[in-house]
Design goal:
The chain is of the alpha/beta class. The protein has one domain (about 1-195): Rossmann fold, CATH 3.40.50.150. It is about 35% helix and about 30% strand. It has six helices and nine strands. The chain has a seven-stranded mixed β-sheet, with helices on both faces. The protein has a two-stranded antiparallel ribbon with strand order 6-7. α4 links the parallel β2 (about 60-65) and β3. The longest helix is centred in the first third of the chain and has 18 residues, at about 1-20. One of its GO terms (biological process) is methylation. GO terms for molecular function: methyltransferase activity. Keywords: Methyltransferase, Transferase.
Length: about 200
Amino acid sequence: MNTTINYYNLNAKKFIENTQNADMHLAQEAFLQLLPGSASILDFGCGSGRDTKYFLEKGYQVAATDGSAELCRLAGSFTGIKVKKMLFQELDEIGVYDGIWACSSILHLPKQELLPVIQKMCIALKDNGVIYTSFKYSNFEGERNGRYFTDFMEDTFREFIKVIPELTVEDQWITLDVRPGRGEEKWLNLILRKNQK
């Protein structure tokens, strides 16, 4: 994970230029329509702050985190809120959020670290809360362009998540990358629901 964080610290401005204006409207609205009007949202690995700002402008309560100090600084400036520098593994809240937005973020964890983090995300959700997350669409796992990636396809993710019975895959869809020049890349988008006790 340190290599990935170093990548973002060194390339934060370039990363923000490539992602801050990416049109994530369809995924954002698919997520928001499942939340109550005054929902509390965690933007978990907020990157440029694009989605945090969108949710804030819609009137939601938003907490934002990122593992990169430089992205925290720049995203905080962009959104107007303090972005907490935190590793995914450090999430320790219980029943706080109506929704957790993890757009292209937790994919940087190796599979053996990813499962405990998703369990922590589940614990941080209120009952009936939802998680949006996305992964590159393939079965690759390893380093790519200076960062670590865990990719998934529909069947491999469903198999992977089976060990967390509190979470159900409520929706999934494939999209093409919305960044300029990246339209040939596919993404797996997922909505997970925490079952009511």
